[in-house]
Every structure is written in C-alpha cells, then in structure tokens.
Specification:
By secondary structure, the protein is an alpha/beta fold. The protein has helices at about 1-30, 40-70, 80-105, 120-125, 130-155, 175-200, 220-225, 225-235, 250-255, 295-300, 320-325, 340-345, 350-355, 375-380, 395, 405-420, 445-450, 460-480, 510-515, 540-545, 605-625; strands at about 280-285, 305-310, 310, 360-365, 385, 425-430, 490-495, 515-520, 530, 535, 570-575, 575-580, 585-590, 595-600. Strands 5-4-6-1-7-8-2-9 form an 8-stranded mixed sheet, sandwiched between helices. Strands 11-12-13-14 form a 4-stranded antiparallel sheet.
C-alpha cells in the first residue's frame, strides 16, 4: 500500500513541477519583450500554484484509478506507459503552442485555435517552415523528456511489473482481505478530496483562470495561468455555452440596451450624389489606425472622401471582422459565426440586400476561400461570383505565404471594375492579405520604400508590410480615377481588425481597436469627417440608409448619420473579454477573471452594465437563429 500511495504522491508532485518549469521557460522566452525580475518569477509560481495543483489532479485521475484497481487485480505496466505517452504529448504540445502563440495573440492558449485546424495550410501561413520545424522539434523533445520522467517516477515507486497486489502469505497480519479492504476504503475516501481539489473548494465559485491574477501587468498574470487548464476551460465554455452571458433579466437587459440599437434612418443630409452607385468594399487586412503613420496615401485619401474618424473594429480576427462588416452582425468573445453555417446563412448581408435591388455581386480574395468557412458564408449571404487563389495560375498562387499577394489581386480588382460592361449596378467585395504575418511583401519592396521621400526612417517588417499595402492601394485608386467608372463609383475602405504591435496591446484598446472607415469615389458628394463613435458593423445600416433602403433586418447595425443614433457606442471582444467605449470613456472587462482590465470611464460600472446587456442581447439572438 505504501508504495502505491508513494507512487501517486510522487507522480502528482512531478506534474506540479512540470507546470512550474513551463512557466519559467515561458517567461524566459519573452524576457526581451517583457521586463521582469527574479522576484516576479517567484510571484508567478506562487500565484499560479493553485491552478497547477488543480490541473495536476486532472492528470492524476487515470493513474489513481489504475492503482486502485491494482489492489485487487494484476495490472501490467503498459496501461500506465500508454497514458504517459498521451499526457506527455498533450503537455508538450500545450507548453510549446502556448509559448509560440502568445507572441501573436497576447493571451493564453485556449480552444479558439481548434477552428483553424480544418484548413491547416492556411492556419500556419503566418509563419515560416523553419519556425514550424523548430517548434515541432522542441515539442517532440519535451514530450520524450516528460514521458521518461513519468516512467522514472513509476519505476522508482511502484513494485516490479506486473504489479502484484497479493502479498506473500507469510507477511499477512492482519489478513490479506482486511488489508485490501482498508486500502480500497482509503482510495474511496480520497475521491471526494480529489474532486474538491479539482473544483477548487466547496464554495459556489469553482477553479477559474482569474484566481491566479494578481498584478496590474497582464504579462505576469498570463504567465501565472496554466496553459493546459486555460485550454480545457475555454473548450468547455465556448461553443454551446452562451448561457454564461445571461447577466440580467430580459426586461433589465432590454432597458440597459434600449438606446444602443436602432433600425430606422432619419436623415438630414446625404453623403452621396446618387442612390445607385457601383460599390466596392475593401477589407484592409489588420490595417488599424495605429499604422496611419506608415500609410501616407491612405491619409491623403481622407481629405478626398467621407472619413469616419472614430470607427472601431468589432473583433480581433478576420472571420469575425468580415461578418461584422458585410452582415452588420456583432462578434462574440468565444465563437466565430462564420464557422457556424447553420447560423451564418441566416444573416442579412449587403450583398443579399443589394441583389434584391438588381445589383450583381462579386467577391475577391487571394487566399484559400475555404479558410474559416469563408466560402459557405459568402455564398450563403448573397455573393454570386467568387474569385480566390485557385483561380490564379500556379506561379501566382504562392507569391505570398497566404496566397496571391496584394499588388496582383488589386490589379485583378481594377481590371474587373474598369472592364465591367454590365447594365446593372455592381457590388464588389475584396479582402487583402499581405499585411498579415509573416509580412511577406515582394523581396525588393523594402529598398523601394526606403527611398520614398515621404518616409524618413527605416520601417520594421510589420510597418513595411502596411507601407506596401498603402502603395498597392495608391496604384489601385490612381487607376480607378483614370477610368470612366470612377464617376459613379463608391469605394469603402475599412480594416477588418487591428493588431498587437509595438506598444499597442490589449491594455490600450483605444489604439488597438481603432480602424479606418473611409468612403471615396465619384459617387461621394463632398469630403467630410464623421466623428460619431461607431463600429465596423454599422457600415451596413449607414450605407443602406444613404441608398434609401431599409435596414430593419440588420438588428445590430446602426445608421450613424441618423437622428435616431442617440447613444454612440462601440464594442470589441476577444477571448472571453469585451471592451466598450462611449462618451464617458471606455472599459475592458474579462469574463473569465471577472475583473476590469481597463477602466477609464466616468462611470465604469454603468458602462460595464451596458456592455453586458449588449452581449446578452446579441448572444440571445445568435442562440435563436
């Protein structure tokens, strides 16, 4: 009995030590980007220990059951070894993935990456082959090391294989049956202890990520979080568990969000000189306003068109931003509507509405249009003719890591527009892709951009990618202005989302979420700036209002030029957190930790209540679709 219990205790301690070692290595990998002292490492280990202890109990369950069975039956070594192999692979993958992805996402490993596994080629397009091979090698080495350590603990503490639960008759005092019953009773008594340990106590609040947060520096809080627990927790709370956002009664929720969503346009003026222009909607990949300084041509265009100066992205990923822009539908902290065909096909869309008005519709994307279920969404919401990388010759399909680079696809779009001979108005949609990791612009572009007199310093590779996008956009607009189509054309330029770069992180949501929305073209009556706070999801109602069309079916899209838009707000969410801004300021709240990440409002609690009511209202709509 003592050896069996010794084995369980030592195995449990090993798991906790592995989790602690992973934290230290995680912090070391980011020592150049995040400053911390030895005392911070100790604090991270101390505050993260409760989550490690709970997670280790999950891993202990199978050895615990096998050991309990061995009291009565002969249990060979191979079930233990098989379990070690599985857990070693799982832990190694979690540790390496967490450390690798944190640099891109700035939050801990969760289940959101699973949705990209259906198209693995596109999922890894942000990184190089060498980057992947290095991490794969590290993961394999870590898995082997963890497996060997588990085997070592077993060999040092358990009897020789096969396990022999029946002691020699000469040593029985008391009887063997009594000993077996006593040991079995001990294991039975340990079960509620393990359950309570996994749960984190007997109170209503169970083990959660927020319990390890202790610092005003998010990096230290994130370092304290166990990545295995973070993944398991998010996987169990994301896909079908929208009930976590039921904060109020339906009556109270409607009251709080009463002035937020309006579906009627009451206009005093118009931005356009025609009700039926040809329309181009261009989603600029990751091109938040934080990159305004390296996109001079886009800044010049702001003086020529209608610039919405306080527009904010709804989310942090392209699939969410695309749905928000084209369907006027909100994003959600833990689910992607584009990945849910049974939901996305029920959404309204600019394409569907304009088709009913006689428009032809086309969409262009230089990448894999099946990625994140994009094809299904576009077809299901009214886009008739789709062009993607498969429509390009082989030599152009891999000119960028994600597919066909932007100068080529901008050229395609220009040709489609300027050679169009249709007798009906046309709607084109287009998503750029080169301003995305790994920022692989043409090899000679850096030299050309450095020689531009408008740029007085050397850009890093990220800024260089946005400067490249800016130049592609400039060539495209120049070509349009020289065409006969320009006079009746409305071009909507809008980013799909912002990104984390430089000093801009999740604790600076105003900068991270601020995106350009700009209307240019001959169909624009005159240049002006609209300074109302709004979301990218408000494009649908605002555009349709200018076209004199009803947008009643766009429940969560607001016409920001309408007199009915009385409470300007914008929200952005990611990884079970939501940010909201209004005239009083802004707050960012993490629903996992149940605490403010940012609270810079004259009335933060009221603003949080509005944010919760908006999320409750929109998730109820999603559930009922």
């Amino acid at each position: 009995m003592k050896k069996r219990l010794s084995y369980l205790a030592c195995y449990y301690v090993l798991l906790v030590l592995l989790f602690s070692a992973a934290k230290v290595l995680f912090m070391c990998c980011y020592r150049e980007q995040q400053s911390f002292a030895a005392g911070d490492v100790a604090d991270v280990l101390l505050h993260g220990l409760s989550l490690d202890l709970s997670t280790a109990l999950y891993f202990l369950l199978v050895p615990f059951l096998l050991t309990a069975v061995s009291v009565w039956l002969r249990v060979p070594r191979w079930p233990f070894r098989a379990y070690y192999a599985v857990t070693a692979a799982a832990m190694a993958l979690a540790f390496v993935a967490d450390t690798s992805l944190y640099g891109f996402w700035q939050f801990k490993l969760d289940a959101s990456w699973l949705q990209y596994l259906e198209t693995p080629g596109e999922a890894v397009a942000s990184v190089t082959t060498g980057w992947l091979l290095l991490r794969a090698a590290v993961a394999v080495a870590a898995a082997v090391l963890i497996f060997l350590l588990q085997c070592l603990v077993e060999r040092a503490t358990l009897p020789p294989s096969p396990l022999t639960p029946h002691p020699s008759p000469s040593s029985l005092h008391p009887s063997p049956l009594t000993l077996h019953l006593r040991e079995t009773l001990l294991y039975v008594l340990l079960i509620p202890v393990i359950v309570v340990g996994i749960r984190g106590g007997i109170d209503e609040s169970t083990t959660n990520i927020g319990q390890v947060y202790y610092s005003d520096r998010q990096f230290l809080n994130h370092a304290a979080v166990n990545p295995v627990f973070s993944f398991l927790y998010s996987a169990s709370h994301r896909l079908d568990d929208l009930s976590q956002y039921a904060f109020f009664s339906d009556v109270e929720s409607r009251r709080l969000a009463d002035n937020v969503y309006t579906t009627e346009s009451i206009l005093t003026d118009t931005l356009l000189n025609t009700r039926r222009p040809d329309i181009v909607i261009i989603l600029l990949e990751s091109a938040g306003e934080q990159f305004a300084g390296v996109m001079p041509h886009l800044q010049q265009l702001k003086d020529e068109g209608v610039y919405f100066s306080r527009c904010y992205a709804n989310s942090w990923r392209t699939d969410r931003g695309t749905v928000a822009t084209l369907s006027g539908y909100p994003s959600f902290p833990t689910v992607s509507v584009m990945k849910m065909p049974e939901k996305s096909r029920s959404l309204p869309s600019i394409a569907g509405t304009l088709k009913r008005q006689g428009y032809s519709t086309s969409y262009l994307y230089g990448g894999d249009i099946n990625f994140t279920n994009m094809r299904s969404y576009l077809i299901g919401t009214g886009w008739d003719h789709l062009t993607s990388k498969e429509d390009y010759p082989p030599q152009q399909r891999r000119t960028a890591q994600w597919g066909v680079r932007d100068d080529i696809t901008f050229g395609t779009l220009l040709q489609l527009i300027t050679t169009s001979t249709h007798d009906t108005p046309h709607l084109w949609g287009y998503s750029t892709l080169s301003s995305h990791e790994p920022w692989d612009v043409p090899e000679d572009y850096e030299a050309r951009s450095a020689g531009d007199g408008a740029r007085d310093r050397q850009y890093d590779e990220v800024e260089n990618a946005f400067a490249y996008l800016d130049d592609c956009l400039h060539q495209f607009v120049t070509g349009l202005k020289a065409s006969t189509q320009w006079e009746n054309l409305l071009v909507v330029l809008i980013a799909d989302h912002g990104i984390l770069h430089g000093e801009v992180d999740h604790q600076r949501p105003l900068e991270k979420n601020h995106i350009p929305m700009l209307w240019i073209g001959g169909a624009v009556r005159e240049p002006r700036t609209v300074d109302a706070i709004c979301n990218q999801s408000d494009l649908c109602a605002t555009l349709l209002g200018q076209l004199g069309l009803s947008h009643e079916e766009y429940t969560f899209s607001r016409d920001v030029l309408s007199r009915s838009y009385v409470y300007p707000t914008a929200v952005n969410n990611y990884s079970n957190a939501q940010w909201i801004v209004d005239s009083t300021g802004h707050v960012l709240y993490d629903f996992d930790t149940r605490r403010f990440v940012v609270a810079e409002s004259r009335d933060s609690e009221r603003l949080l209540s509005v944010s919760k009511a908006m999320l409750q209202t929109t998730t109820n709509d999603l559930k009922n679709r």
